Amino acid sequence: MTKIIGLTGGIGSGKTTVAKMFSEQGIPVYIADEEAKKLMDLDEIIEQVKITFGNEIILNKKIDRAKLAKIVFNNAEQLKKLNKIVHPTVQKHFKKWLKIHDLAPYVIKEAAILFETNGHKQCDKVITVVAPQLLRIERVFLRDKSDKESVLQRIDNQWSDEKKILLSDYVIENIDLEKTKAQVDVIIKLLDKI
What we know:
Elements: E1 3-9, H1 15-24, E2 29-31, H2 32-39, H3 43-53, E3 58-59, E4 62-63, H4 65-72, H5 76-100, E5 106-110, E6 125-130, H6 133-144, H7 148-156, H8 161-166, E7 170-173, H9 177-191
Parallel strand pairs: 1-5, 1-6, 2-5, 6-7
Antiparallel strand pairs: 3-4
């Protein structure tokens, strides 16, 4: 049976970069956040978001992501509400995706909030990507021009690295890309044995 390897890390840790490194080695990778963004265009999700957060969150029959982000990333309770809407649909989508890759010995499931949603309980192993906070803030700023304050709010809404590390099987320190790649190669050798 195909094993599920969870891959997580806080905002700006570089988990998507690490996911690409696994993908380049021919390992199937599911990026939960990317899939969630696509699934948020589904009519049933749009309707539930409208009911939960109000009509003003809808723009041209689509979710106004900027407005929604302002609401949920400043309020842990609102973020929980959004996750309750989106998470079950992502789970169903992942199960279908997993069936397509059932011949692979293992797959990587990359999810920013793997622990926060108890997703780690469905994984055979978990990898957490970490990086110093200042570097994480800089990466997010370069990626999507977020200001320091909003990045720190998002960091505060996620579990701390220390808490994630306690529940992880492997930890990748992502500061230098060559060293990160070397850590990925070591983990692949270990995963090939499970």
